[in-house]
Design goal:
Helix content is 47%, strand content 14%. The chain is α/β, with parallel strands linked by helices and 520 residues long. The chain has three domains: 295 residues, no CATH class; 73 residues, no CATH class; 125 residues, no CATH class. β2, α4 and β3 form a beta-alpha-beta unit. α7 packs antiparallel against α8, α9 packs antiparallel against α11 and α17 packs antiparallel against α18.
Amino acid sequence: MEIPLIDNFYKNNILKELFEEDSKLKNFHNGLSIDSIGLEFLDERDINETQRKILYNVVNEQYLDAGITCPSNLESIKNKGTFTVTTGHQLCVFGGPQYFIHKIISILKLAEQLKEKFQHKNFIPIFWMASEDHDFKEISELHVFNKKLSIDKEDSVEVGKISPEIFKPILNQLKEIFKNDERFKTLDAIFSNALNTKSWSAATRYWLHHIFKNENLIILDADDHRLKNIFAPVIKKEIESQFVYNSVSETNNSLKKHNFIPKINPRELNLFYLNDDLRQRIIFEKDTFTIGDKTFNKDQLIEELGNAPERFSPNVLLRPLYQENILPNLIYVGGPSEISYWAQLKNTFSMVDLNFPILMLRDHFIWMNEKTIKKWLSFGFSIDDLSKKPELLIKLNLEKNSSENLDFNKENELLNQIQFSLLEKSNGIDVSLSQSVEASVKLTKNTLDKLQKKFLQAVKRTQDHKVNQIIKISSLVHENGKLKERSESFISSYIRHSNDYIEKLKKASNPDVRSLKLVT
């Protein structure tokens, strides 16, 4: 049971055009399906063993720091012929909206599909933690049963370095919500232990590792001086020539010529600077680089890069290049907005001789029990109708199934006949009477329209139960034009299906099919 995403839920013109068979944007990507990957594609994306060892050491140390053991497949990252499938997200408190989890399900499934296709190669699903982001508000909210749990704090340091203790109030609220549900105890223990780690990056790795304990998921924090050192030549080029601004601006002009509005406009310099308690944008103006109250010329900033590459942080447009620079990556899995702005970057990748990955839209899921689906179908709706606004469905259903006939076409036709007859009579007596006839008939038609609305309202009142059921079932999928998976936490679904939550989602998953999957 699936509902197509494009047009039903996503109407972004760039996204829609990307997936058209004869797309105007076919030169803006290297493929949007696993079918685009062949042996030559793999060979081009292999990386040297020295870089692989650095990657292994960084990840291994991060797992040890979080007090957990690395998945066994990390060993294979040392060897040529091992590739990654990557997705990433902000470090939302306990996952934030459930599509956080759905992104990871997508890369797990794709890694398995690639292994079936290339049995002599290895494929590692990588979750890239956006640990350097500093927008605290975006990570500090959790919605459970439509209830918002959140805490307030000013943006400052990168979120990966925040003390996990700050999120204890949210865990306490979760405990209160699920105090009568024994099934929450497992998650409670996982989250509680996560909050005892050293940083929010380590905490996120801890609880994700335990949720996906039976999967070979690798969780990477790229905020490391060794990885930044690998990326330093690209950062240097950005400082010297602002190549991201120039290349993305050129791409955006091409998009505009095709009548598309670019998702993101580049800054003249796409870098931040990290210190112990702040992440600040590096502002480039008149050959001067400003960081807070300090200024640098080009040579001074490049010298700073050589001394401390870990202090330089890519923004949203430069981060994809960082990712593809340090990983032997084949596919990036993203949401609709991510895929749209990645499509602005192919030319930017070529400016620094980096391979552009396959772009794939993440999978989408909604949990719904069989009883609810049968009830929905009993109303005469299809599965596709779950994408429609409930107000429209209620109107259509009531008009179709009401015992009262809400079709006023016959009455309107009779009124038209009366109008015609009266006009004939008025013309035989006094032509000026026709204006009075038309005014009276118009008034009657307005009255008839009001009566029809009153009839419909009366029917609604007699069928309140059915109306409420339609609204309730529809709200499981979307509310106010927004998919429910983009707001509601994964927690309630997880504890209901804790024995096979991941397995059920993986079984339903197929990112090559761009649809909302109903998981029963």
